[in-house]
Amino acid sequence: MTDIRYIAHLTDPHLLADPAARLHGWAVADAFEQVWADMRACLPAPDALVLGGDLVDDLSPAGYRWLADRLAVLDCPVLAVAGNHDDPQAMRQHLRGAQVHGALDLGPWHLIGLNTQVPGAEHGQLRAHDRRRLDTVLADPMRQCLVVMHHPPIAVGTAWIDAIGLVDQTIFADQMAGGASCRGVLAGHVHQAFTGALGDCPIWTTPSTMRQFLPGATTFAEDEAAAPGWRWLALHDDGRIETGIRRLGDRPRRIALKA
Ligand SMILES: [Fe+2]
Fold first, then answer.
1. Is the dihedral of CA 199, 111, 122, 14 positive or negative?
2. Could you report the per-residue pLDDT of 67-97, keeping only the tens digit for each?
3. What is the domain extent for residue 63?
4. Rounded CA separation 202/88 (Å)
5. Is residue 106, in this structure, part of any structural domain at all?
6. What is the CATH number of the domain that holds 109?
7. 100 CA to middle of ligand 1, Å?
8. Which DSSP letter does residue 208 get?
9. Tens digits of per-residue pLDDT, 177-213?
């Protein structure tokens, strides 16, 4: 029987220094707490947690410390990548124990976190250092690789947000075409659930833990009908990935029975 590793992807919480403060009318800390509670109920013992960036909107140490207090109850590794709303140095300082733009090995699985942040900009770009790391991982046929990045590496069909996407998508696509071990890419940034592909490799984005953006919109538009959420993934030893989205208000469900 093959083993399965269960992971949770939470992204774009846009937390603030004051957990009682609101951002764009959203009680962001409260929304995160609710999503966090759903994740904990569905996956009481995840094998890893992945944080997809835009963690602290005001880049405050207090915001990262508030998040670190939540992470402290977990008994699993954490992989985190920066979004355009993040301070990577503060992430490393305050999210103690988390792999910030690092990697995690879960059995045959290798999760690699890439930093796409361009300081002061909304769009994303890969660094040469990360491209070399990715090349090394993709060249190893013995590993099942899951790539984690904030900016999706393909357009999601929402024009205004695709305009602030990853600028070096062609380079990334060429890299992926040269490696057979990548089983999926997890991204945030777009505040909506999306599934696409680069060749045979699926690309998933995950809803924000706060407000959602309307899929297909040409100019900025919130998706007021879509609730905050998160994504679960079941990584099979043979390289298959099952995945799904949970949103606040969904019927309670235990995803992993092994806890
Ligand atoms: Fe965001």
1. positive
2. 999 999 999 999 999 999 999 999 999 998 9
3. 4-247
4. 27
5. yes
6. 3.60.21.10
7. 17
8. B
9. 987 789 999 999 999 999 999 999 999 999 999 999 9
